[in-house]
Amino acid sequence: MDIKDVENLASLVRIELKEDEKRELLSDMKGILEYVRQIEKVNVKHSVFNITNNNVWREDTPDPREFSKELITKQFPDAQDGFLKVKKIL
């Protein structure tokens, strides 16, 4: 990668870069590419971070809960005529 690549990229994204910005961007891009090369070298098969893709499905089991209009109304801070009062949202 060289300055010409940075200039080509800048023209593709339609931005103007000063010479020092081009050099800085080139340095950043070289660093990123070096990091990607290091990651590519990692043997994922024998890595500690190897994640096996097993389907971990569980059966849906309903949790019995008690819901009643009276219970909810009693726990709500403000209610009137069987309705729950909330703040007005604009």
TrEMBL record:
InterPro entries named among the record's database cross-references: Asp/Glu-ADT_sf_sub_c, GatC
Pfam family, one: GatC
GO biological process: regulation of translational fidelity
Name under which the protein is recorded: Aspartyl/glutamyl-tRNA(Asn/Gln) amidotransferase subunit C
Organism: Candidatus Nomurabacteria bacterium RIFCSPHIGHO2_01_FULL_39_10
